[in-house]
Amino acid sequence: MTTTPASAPARTPAGTSPHPVLTIEDLSIDYLVDPVVHAVRNVTLSLGRGEVLGLAGESGCGKSTLAYGVNRLLKPPAVITSGRAVFHSREGYEIDLGALHGEDLRAFRWDRIAMVFQGAMNSLNPVISVQAQLEDIFTTHRPDMGRAERVERCGELLERVGVDRSRLSSFAHELSGGMRQRVMIAMAMALDPQVMIMDEPTTALDVVVQREILREITRLRSELGFAVIFITHDLPLLLEISDRIAIMREGEVVELADAMTLYTRPQHEYTKKLLGSFPSLTGARGGFIRSGVDEHVLVEAGVDEEEAR
Ligand SMILES: Nc1ncnc2c1ncn2[C@@H]1O[C@H](COP(=O)(O)OP(=O)(O)OP(=O)(O)O)[C@@H](O)[C@H]1O
């Protein structure tokens, strides 16, 4: 895997974005079991418009709970014990996600913030064609759209994610895992959301397919301008695709920095440990240096190449 850290589009203090599309303020989430699990603890971060924010940390550190909390998808015994998430619209108004209910919340989820889950490819309905599932989104959320336009949009969506539109008539079992995941991404993009939350969207796929899909996501992000919160325990992958990376540990964000800074100048012991757990990043003459960053980049970042190795 080639690993080249993305460069952050704007240089601002690590926790903030000049033009946020989403801000998370002091968010805490508990699971009310015995003993209580403090899954997310006082998390504050913002997602810039069009930014890819990586969220990394070992299994159980609270990444999914945070994502579910932001998108109001938590179920008991989970409770939000403090804080809030605020969406900033293109038009300049703010929506407190905690204040949305019922139909407003459902509409918001597809329209503004879409989510692609871990293993989402298995959540396609097996007895309905891809076209029917895509059309369903438009029928529900864009009731004024005529049938011809709906069908055209479905074809466009598939092509956008690199699937031939002839696949519209396919059923889930007729598609490869990679194709199914692409269809799920197409569904998430259907209503042109401004934020995509992707929770391990490619983990179940083989490395080659994973890379293709990631390339597709970054291309689409540049084309369409949505922001992405990308969740994974795969730090090398995040270094490659993210503008900034937040490191979570035991429910807290312990470090948040742009990708290059996080790689070259990790501050927190846990980040260093995490970086150290990927031999391709830190091993002798690691793949990272070989394949991605040339010396100039390291020099610009103020890093001794030997030190980086
Ligand atoms: N329904 C639940 N009831 C009780 N505890 C839960 C529940 N769901 C998650 N937890 C706990 O909350 C903590 C955070 O879990 P979460 O799934 O958010 O972590 P994660 O970082 O996304 O992990 P993974 O990478 O394995 O998906 C863990 O300690 C987990 O055991």
From TrEMBL:
Gene3D superfamilies: P-loop containing nucleotide triphosphate hydrolases
Topology in the lipid bilayer: Peripheral membrane protein
Keywords: ATP-binding, Cell inner membrane, Cell membrane, Membrane, Nucleotide-binding, Translocase, Transport
Domain ABC transporter, residue spans: 22-275
Family annotation (SUPFAM superfamilies): P-loop containing nucleoside triphosphate hydrolases (SSF52540)
Any GO molecular function: ATP binding
DNA repair keyword on record: no
Compartments where found: Cell membrane
InterPro entries associated with the record: AAA+_ATPase, ABC_Ni/Peptide_Import, ABC_transporter-like_ATP-bd, ABC_transporter-like_CS, P-loop_NTPase
Main localization (coarse): membrane
A Pfam family annotated for this UniProt entry: ABC_tran
Family designation: Belongs to the ABC transporter superfamily.
Name of the protein in question: ABC transporter ATP-binding protein
